[in-house]
Design brief:
With 88 residues, the protein is mainly alpha-helical. The protein has 4 helices and no strands.
Length: 88
């Protein structure tokens, strides 16, 4: 742990402020999901090459959002629920 805090000095600040950090990141993730949901039926360009790129990027965006939610929920579990379940 000493080596980790020496190599990454900001890690102490992150763990000391984990509640506001998780709230802020949850809000930002929720806003991004809302905008992605809102644009789900937006038209793609007529050009076939650009339309294919548009659909490919939409698929990548959905995967990225899903992965971000999984990482967020994993962090939420280990930061808040794990200590309640296993450290009592």
């Amino acid at each position: 742990m000493v080596g980790l805090t020496t190599a990454i000095p900001g890690i102490i600040w992150l763990s000391a402020h984990k509640v506001p950090l998780f709230v802020a990141s949850g809000v930002v993730l929720s806003i991004a999901a809302f905008f992605q949901w809102q644009q789900r039926n937006a038209p793609c360009p007529i050009d076939p090459v650009k339309a294919a790129a548009c659909m490919r990027l939409r698929r990548i965006n959905r995967w990225t959002m899903g992965l971000s939610v999984v990482v967020y929920l994993t962090g939420l579990f280990f930061a808040f629920l794990w200590p309640l379940i296993f450290l009592d």
